[in-house]
Structures are given as C-alpha cells and as structure tokens.
Design brief:
Oligomer: single chain
Strand content: 15-25%
Radius of gyration: 20 Å
Shape: globular
Structural class: alpha/beta
Helix content: 40-55%
Order of helices and strands: EEHEHEEEHEHEEEHEHH
Number of helices: 7
Number of strands: 11
Largest sheet: 5 strands, mixed
Number of domains: 2
Length: 264
C-alpha cells in the first residue's frame, strides 16, 4: 500500500537519489541536491532550513582534478564539504561560470521552500547512500527529520533511507519501519551492468521499492508543466533529426515501416 505525499525531496548522497525518484515517476521538478555529492546529511538539511542562505560562495570553491572526458569541471565547497560534479562547464573560468550556477541553486532552493510551506500532506525526505561515499546512520536521519520539522512549523516530515548491503540480494531486501514515518530499506542496489561505473546504482530496483511504498501529487505549476512538455517535444524532435510535428510524424511512420519490413 502506498502513502501519498505532497512532496518527495532528495537529500543525497549523490545524483542517483534524484535519478531513482525520476525513474519511479515521483519527482517532477529540480531541487538543490539533485546533482551534488555530499556525505553529511546535516549539511543538506541546514541549507534547506535556511533556504540556501550562503550555500555558495565563490571564494570557498576549490577545483578538483577532472575525471577523464567528463564534460564538467568538478569543484568542492571547502566550508560545507560538498562536491559539484554537474554544474560548471569544463574549461570555463570560475569567474564566468559562477553567476549562472549560483542563480540556478537560488531558484531551486526557492522552489523547494515554496513547496514545503505550501504542503498540506507530509513531505518525504529521501536519502540513498552512494556505493562509494559511505553509510548514513539512523540517528543522522532522525536529526534531519527533526530539524526540518523545527524549521517549518506545522509541517510533517517523514524520511526514507536506502542503505547498501553488498551481501543482500534484492529478493532478500529489508524494508523496516524504524519508527512511524521512517522507512529503512537495505539491499545490494549497486549497478551490476558490465562496465558500469562503481558509483552507479540500479535505479529500476530502487524505483520498484519506491513505487511500492510512496506516491506524490503533481506539484508543478501550469507554466512548469507546459515548459516540461515543450522540452520533451524538443528532445524528441532533436533525436529524430526533425524540427516540426509533421516531420516527427513522418519519422515515426518511416520507423514503423522499416520495422515491419525487417520482420519479413
């Protein structure tokens, strides 16, 4: 039986949390911790409680060594010890790239804060431990839940933690209610696909568990829904190499015909 929430928020440890939520169809907008790597959940929560005040200061960012042919430069925030792996274009000086990145996070914190304050049903915090960062303790999750409730009076927060156990297959996973409003899920959700990066997770397996327990209302504004539809349409057209609706219909027709001919 699923429990419906007004909002489900990813709170680290890495981008796999947001990606799994999106795979499950439980996240419709971008939030501050979607693409950031962070070991300490308390750092996430303190920034959430202050609506991102002083979240990014240019003088506190240190550039890290690039990773292979990754298209982004990596930076670490020395004050709150988080890593930005998906925000700064590779080779662009920080003075040039910082304003746009800072503005993006300002928008995301503002959106998150607005949705929390407007929630009538509980808000779920989701934490998925990365295969390469390290475990989050139950007490840290209790702190996160309590701190959010203190900062947003009258709002109800629940939390779900996914912990990695490489000796426990999906079929033998643990789904334990630590206390009312706190679900702890344990199994080996590392990505077993040949050649997969060591930090990858099996998003489909995680999404299956999420859908079993949770559902969420579509909290997007009319403008956000419209923008999403337009974005999806543009991506479809680009993948098909066309620029109009008629061109896309002809592309689909051609694809179907080729598939039918291939079956003969």
């Amino acid at each position: 039986m699923t429990e419906k929430f007004d909002l489900i928020l990813p709170v680290g440890q890495a981008c796999s949390c947001s990606q799994s939520l999106r795979t499950a169809g439980l996240q419709f907008a971008s939030f501050p911790w979607d693409w950031i790597a962070t070991r300490d959940i308390r750092k996430c929560i303190e920034s959430d409680c202050s609506c991102g005040k002083d979240f990014m200061r240019k003088e506190e960012l240190v550039r890290l060594e690039p990773r292979g042919d990754h298209p982004m430069d990596f930076y670490r925030n020395t004050r709150i010890n988080i890593c930005y792996n998906h925000d700064f274009p590779r080779g662009v000086p920080l003075d040039e790239s910082f304003p746009a990145v800072a503005a993006k996070y300002e928008r995301r914190f503002a959106r998150q804060d607005r949705l929390i304050r407007g929630a009538r049903k509980p808000v779920l915090l989701l934490r998925i431990d990365s295969p390469i960062i390290g475990p989050t303790s139950l007490d840290e999750c209790r702190y996160a839940r309590r701190r959010m409730a203190e900062s947003f009076p009258g709002k109800v927060f629940e939390i779900c933690l996914f912990s990695l156990d490489r000796d426990r297959p999906f079929e033998d996973r643990i789904e334990e209610e630590v206390e009312p409003g706190f679900l702890h899920v344990v199994f080996d959700y590392s990505d077993k696909t040949p050649g997969a990066a060591e930090y990858n997770v099996n998003q489909n397996a995680i999404a299956q568990v999420l859908r079993r327990h949770f559902s969420v209302r579509d909290y997007r504004t009319h403008e956000e829904k419209k923008a999403f539809v337009e974005k999806v349409r543009a991506e479809k057209y680009a993948n098909a190499g066309v620029s109009t609706a008629l061109g896309y219909r002809l592309y689909r027709l051609k694809t179907r015909l080729l598939k039918l001919l291939g079956r003969r």
